[in-house]
Design brief:
- β9 and β10 form a beta hairpin.
- Strands 2, 4, 5, 6, 9, 10 and 11 form a 7-stranded mixed β-sheet that branches. A 4-stranded antiparallel β-sheet has the order 1-3-8-7, with no helix packed on it.
- It contains no helices and 11 strands.
- By secondary structure, it is mostly beta strands.
Amino acid sequence: QVQLVESGGGLVHPGESLRLSCAASGSTFRTSTMNWYRQAPGKGRVWVASIGSSSGITNYGPSMKGRCTISRDNAKNTAYLQLNSLRPEDTVVYYCNIQNYWGQGTQVTVSS
């Protein structure tokens, strides 16, 4: 069993940054690829980024490519998603994912 808890969301102005965190329980974290997704109201979840378990190889989807950075700290069982140059259309819920486990999501609101 894996539990994922996201944090770090909030209200920011356009152009500002946020760092999201995903704290994982259990030993699966260290051997699993971590993923971040985002979901706008009334729409499906869209893949944002992934990071390999030990290689640290990262991949990014088109939705925020160039404006986000994924990272992980296996000693802390935590993954991060740095969001930069935020836009109003980035007002969505962000979820972290390992295998078939999901967190509850963290809301990011970008508004002037």
